[in-house]
Amino acid sequence: MKQPNTKQLILSTALDLFSKHGYAGASIRHIARSIGIRESAIYNHYKSKEEIFSAILSEFKAVTISEKILSDDLIEDLVNPEKFLKRFVIKLISQWSSATERKFIRLLLMEQFTKIGSTELSVSGYLIELRSICKMIFSEMSKHNIIKKVDPEILANQFTAPLFLIRTEYMTNDDVKEINKVYDLANKHVEFFWNAVKL
Amino acid sequence: MKQPNTKQLILSTALDLFSKHGYAGASIRHIARSIGIRESAIYNHYKSKEEIFSAILSEFKAVTISEKILSDDLIEDLVNPEKFLKRFVIKLISQWSSATERKFIRLLLMEQFTKIGSTELSVSGYLIELRSICKMIFSEMSKHNIIKKVDPEILANQFTAPLFLIRTEYMTNDDVKEINKVYDLANKHVEFFWNAVKL
DNA sequence: ATTCATAATGAACGCTCGTTAATATATGCA
DNA sequence: TGCATATATTAACGAGCGTTCATTATGAAT
Lengths: 199, 199
Hints:
Chain A is built from eleven helices and no strands. The first copy, chain A, is elongated. Helices cover 72% and strands 0% of the residues of chain A. In chain A, helix 1 crosses helix 4, helix 1 runs parallel beside helix 8 and helix 10 packs antiparallel against helix 11.
């Protein structure tokens, strides 16, 4: 193999251009020229534009939030729930801040309604794991009488929704200058939420 | 004039197709064939595809949420804040449920990152008026010692965010079968929120 | 050094795109 | 009735699209 990185280069370049111009708006030629090869060379690695799109999606489905966020030292903080929630959110946001993740959510928001082949792409699908983790956390807290007795599912929704809006509003473009505002908003959200549920 | 409705037909058809396939994905020919005319006929009414897009946006900027939602009988409910909030949300959601509004938010989510001509299209811009109305409401409630003393801007964010997520998740596709779930989620949200802020 | 799979190239295909021009038709008014 | 205007049609343009194919360059294994 001459350049074994070409296949991966196609994927990252395609994600970049798809997230900027949409699936229909970014052409195979754009992707190829952006890498520095001819469009026909791409077909040595992927058999169609659609396959590139699917490959991007597979790459993201492979890694779960749990592995990214729920580290052991974080779990230990569960004895101090407010501190735990704050650290959890900080970890989540710093995870969301990565260039690749930002591009992916952009692509998700843009193409959630467009059927591309047989691929499913939905906000619900994207949030489902985060919500179930939160539900689990609040369920435990409730069981140990740390928080009020409210349906954990409702708590998970209430905790997740403002974070998602913050993400949608401030974490989808390229400049990171607003990252302080993001942490500020997220922190205020945790404080409001904690005051609402603590016993 | 033969068919004075053609110009408006182009607009509504374009909104429909743009919201289904995106701006780049819906062609002038699609729009024309969908109306039942040839593509060149469109140029008797709009001078470019971009102008059609701008016209759609102008039509939506023209009407404000205040006029749609804040009726007099609703204002009278302010003496019973929880009832007021519940009715406010119901009115908001039934407003959001209209086919045109659903198509518009879809278009907004799809094209918020794509520069189309000089048009600005952002979630923040879409939410700014709703948020400022909520901020005003909570500011008044706080002044009259109906709710806890919390920064009205934070309250507006906390009140708005879950509603927006509900809208994004359940109110963007064509089937209305999930509308009961929407009202249920919204109602639970108001209850959680009210318990968090009431004195 | 030759072989051979891999990966690059350039040219071409059939198609759709946004847009324009020339032309035809129908309507409203003098 | 006839003329001006608005609105439609048909045809074509240059360009870009996804994709294919024959060909050439590359680099590792024999």
